[in-house]
Amino acid sequence: MFSKACEYAIRAVVYIASETDETKKVGIQEICDHIEAPQHFTAKILQTLSRKHIVNSQKGVNGGFFLDSVQKKKSLKNIVEAVDGDQVFVGCGLGLKQCSETKPCPIHNQFKDIRNRLTKMMESTTIDALAIRLLKGESVLMQTK
Amino acid sequence: MFSKACEYAIRAVVYIASETDETKKVGIQEICDHIEAPQHFTAKILQTLSRKHIVNSQKGVNGGFFLDSVQKKKSLKNIVEAVDGDQVFVGCGLGLKQCSETKPCPIHNQFKDIRNRLTKMMESTTIDALAIRLLKGESVLMQTK
DNA sequence: TTAATAAAAGACAAAATTGTCCTTAATTAA
DNA sequence: TTAATTAAGGACAATTTTGTCTTTTATTAA
Prior knowledge:
By secondary structure, chain A is mostly helical. Chain A has a single domain, classed as Orthogonal Bundle (Arc Repressor Mutant, subunit A), CATH 1.10.10.10. Helices cover 55% and strands 4% of the residues of chain A. Chain A has eight helices and two strands, in the order αααββααααα. Chains A and B meet through helix 1, helix 7 and helix 8 of A and helix 1, helix 7 and helix 8 of B. Chain A binds a DNA duplex through helix 3.
């Protein structure tokens, strides 16, 4: 469904949201320790997200990544689009470039419904909602406890 | 969502279903011409599907690929599982190996719903239903007209 | 039996994705 | 101002996916 990069991105952002605000940051090492993701690869992904203002970063002593209150209100869809693009939300299920209502692929209508539901789900799920549940211990980000 | 291999697989199988039966076959060249897929790559995929009895194949003069009436009644889910495996139907949205009801990832429930709907959709969509619509001109398999 | 045909199979090659390592730039505490 | 710290950035490597080409095997029509 999503690329590895996108999976790491969502996990990293939710973790950052759960641990930071305008006054408190976390470093890449701590992030990756808590989401079990490759450090340098994840750092690259967070660079992208930082450039797109989905996360904030600060270099130097006491630097790190953080999300402010505005960023925490954003939806998961923003993260996915920043990392994987929008094909998962709008693309044809069979990879046809010109799939449309007038020239539909064989599964056009069925697939459109799934895609639209996925889109709505990702739009209506906010980063902070997930961060709060994580803090309550109602969800996990690591493969192994 | 699906790999390129899986997209080609579905397109190829629907085309084969629309053109063949126990008495009539199509060759790999004709298949690929009609679904705009790379010939040798698609041939490999069809070998896999043939080994898994999702399509039939016959070597030699007047050989080719075909689907019998039993195979045409199968669902798309079989094709996807044969090519991409079952992760798209059962895997965690964030790539956690140990995501479960008791240790859910942050989007576990929302994602499970999407996954289940996708599964049902692919289970309830049969190859012959798509082949029939294709024959009626109600859907297309090519990128360009 | 032979020649033609068509899928199977294997060897590669290209491209994309994933992952690692090292250097650079920015920041701050001392 | 200096040293320590931390993200940014670039180069590169490994792996996976996608795609191509050639040879082999099976089948059948002549």
